[in-house]
Amino acid sequence: MPSGRAHKYGDGREALLAAVVGVVAEKGLRGLTYRAVAERAGVNNTLISHYFGSRSALLEAAMEWASARSIRLSDLSATEEVDEDFARALVELVQAEPELQLFQYEMILESRRKPELRPSAVKLYENYVASMQQALQKHGYQDTGPLARAIFAALDGLVLQQLTVADTDSIHDAILRVGQMLERTPRQQRSGVEKSHPAPKQPVG
Fold first, then answer.
1. Which residues contact 155 (CB under 8 A, 6 or more apart)?
2. For residue range 164-178, what is the model confidence (pLDDT) as tens digits?
3. Which of 37, 40, 64, 73 is most buried, judged by most C-beta within 10 A?
4. Measured at the alpha carbon of residue 94, what is the angle toward residues 12 and 10, in degrees to the nearest 5?
5. Alpha-carbon span 75 to 47, nearest angstrom
6. Is 160:105 a contact under the CB 8 Å cutoff?
7. Contact 63, 54 (CB under 8 A)
8. Cβ count within 10 A of residue 89
9. For the residues 69-80, what does the mean pLDDT come to?
């Protein structure tokens, strides 16, 4: 039976997706049952089948919801600088909704064991890399694919550390250092101009 408690995501599809994220973050995938999700969302468990039809469809939808919410809350695609504001926003996001990140790490690891989850896991990370590419392009970088993946990998690792082994001040400072390294990239590299081939000098007279 539903618990009847109010849920900040309402009482429909979004509440169920948020509940999936919370249950998996707390109990892992082995603890994911329709009953556990329904109790956390405060709804009847028949709604799960109504909205999603199967456990795999439920998980795929929850991964998409979690990544979209993380990107939106951190404003990753809109940022033009990995600066103080960005560092603070990312640290605060992890502090405020750690279940979003914990759920995604659980799903990434589980995709190693269950190949059927791999497409959703790949899509999850590609969304993040694409969002970082947009940010780098706004910053003037060219050929952003490999760089976006590298920068996201650094930020992703720092988020994992914040969730597990590191204090928030250390993570904040490390994010700032990532931004400083981007700032020190030569402008010629960002604009696509080769440093090694300066413009020829014009003859005098």
1. 90, 175, 178
2. 999 999 999 999 999
3. 37
4. 15
5. 31
6. yes
7. no
8. 16
9. 68
Question: Is 43:16 a contact under the CB 8 Å cutoff?
Answer: yes
pLDDT at residue 195 in the model = 46
- Of residues 7 and 135, more confidence is placed in 135
What is the value of pTM for the model shown?
0.77
Q: How far is 148 from 15, CA to CA, in rounded Å?
A: 32
- For 88-102, the pLDDT digits (tens) are 988 998 999 899 999
Query: How far, CA to CA in Å, does 36 sit from each of 31, 39, 60, 138, 184?
Result: 8, 5, 18, 43, 49
Q: Where are the alpha helices (DSSP H) in 42-83?
A: 46-51, 55-74
Look-up of token digits 């590419």: 133
CA angle, 63 then 125 then 177, to 5°: 120
What's the gap between Cα 51 and its chain centre? 24
Tokens of 2: 């539903």
CA count, 13 A, side-chain hemisphere, 99: 14
Q: What is the mean pLDDT of residues 74-87?
A: 74
**C-alpha to C-alpha distance for 41 and 99, rounded to whole angstroms:** 15
